[in-house]
Amino acid sequence: MRRIVLTAIVLLTALQLATNGLSQCAAEDENEATRAVDYEREIKPLLFQKCAACHGALKQNSGLRLDAGELIRKGGDSGPTVVPGESTASSLIERVTAQDHSVRMPPEGQGEKLSESQIDLLKRWIDQGAVSPADEKIPEDPALYWSYQRPVRPAVPAVKNQTWVRNPIDAFIAVEHENHG
Ligand code: HEC
Question: Which of 16, 36, 83, 116 is the most buried (most CB within 10 A)?
Answer without folding.
Answer: 83
